[in-house]
Design a protein that fits this description.
OB fold (Dihydrolipoamide Acetyltransferase, E2P), 2 domains, eight-stranded mixed beta sheet, flat
């Protein structure tokens, strides 16, 4: 195994190495220990197991950083066996590369800076939520206007999103939990989750704001869309739509939960909750 120093992509902050399957982190340059910096699009790859996921063993690889790892280089991928350091001091060449890949941006008065991801054509930032920086993705700079309704009480909004997901998916979670449950092997009968258990088991990962979509799944530029509000009265969506991705622990065997809805001048409404991943 060799040691490598890798310059991660600016937007690699999205990569949580916390999944029961192989996970990846994009990078734009690397060098072998003691070698010259090579500008090349590669990715760090790490095998994931269900045991690691259940034990909460994961590493968050920061974006726009130099990261030291140990592993094997194969074409455009380093198969990582160990993360040595997630924040070593950059060399002069690495520091210059970090500055060069810094993207354009704009500032939100409450939620800070959002950076333009040219590859995806959208803007990325972080919203402070409890003790984490919740990844926030805006389809365009124009979508930033929708951030204003979050300024006052974002915590309340997130709590309501979790409660909505519980109402929609609690029965399904208990179906998944009871499926294959062996009372003799476990030494106890299956205990269904309560709504509070479901809500407390959700941890947000990302928040996406985008234009409404038409019936074909395409974004509708004139602002007319197809989301129904929580009441299910068939009313067309107005304004912009949002999507929240939550980690759900082992409630759905490692799958995530996604909550969708929309916001307009009348406020926000939740439209759907489903299992993802």
């Amino acid at each position: 195994m060799k040691e490598y120093r890798v310059v991660t992509d600016f937007f690699a902050r999205e990569a949580f190495w916390h999944a029961p399957q192989k996970s990846f982190t994009p990078a734009n340059a690397y060098r072998e220990d003691g070698g010259e910096l090579v500008a090349k699009r590669i990715r760090l790859a790490r095998p994931g197991t269900l045991e690691q996921f259940q034990a909460d063993e994961y590493v968050r690889i920061p974006g726009n950083h130099v990261v030291a790892v140990r592993g094997e280089l194969n074409d455009d991928e380093i198969l990582v066996s160990e993360v040595v350091d997630v924040d070593p001091a950059p060399t002069a060449a690495e520091a210059a590369f970090l500055e060069e890949q810094f993207p354009d941006s704009f500032d939100d008065p409450e939620f800070g800076t959002f950076y333009h991801n040219k590859d995806q054509g959208n803007f990325h930032g972080e919203i402070p939520y409890k003790d984490i920086g919740l990844i926030a993705i805006l389809e365009s700079e124009a979508s930033a206007a929708a951030l204003a309704w979050m300024h006052e009480d974002f915590d309340k909004f997130m709590q309501e999103a979790k409660e909505y997901a519980a109402r929609e998916l609690l029965d399904l979670a208990n179906d998944w939990g009871s499926d294959g449950w062996d009372e003799e092997e476990e030494g106890k009968p299956f205990a269904p989750l309560a709504e509070d258990d479901f809500v407390n088991g959700l941890s947000p990962i990302s928040f996406y704001i985008h234009a409404p979509e038409d019936d074909d799944g395409d974004e509708d530029d004139d602002g007319e869309g197809g989301y129904d509000d929580e009441g299910g009265d068939g009313e067309e969506a107005e304004g912009v739509c949002f999507s929240i991705d939550f980690m759900a622990g082992d409630m759905f065997w490692g799958h995530n939960v996604n909550v969708e809805g929309y916001v307009s001048e009348r406020g926000y409404s939740f439209a759907d909750a489903e299992i993802w991943g």
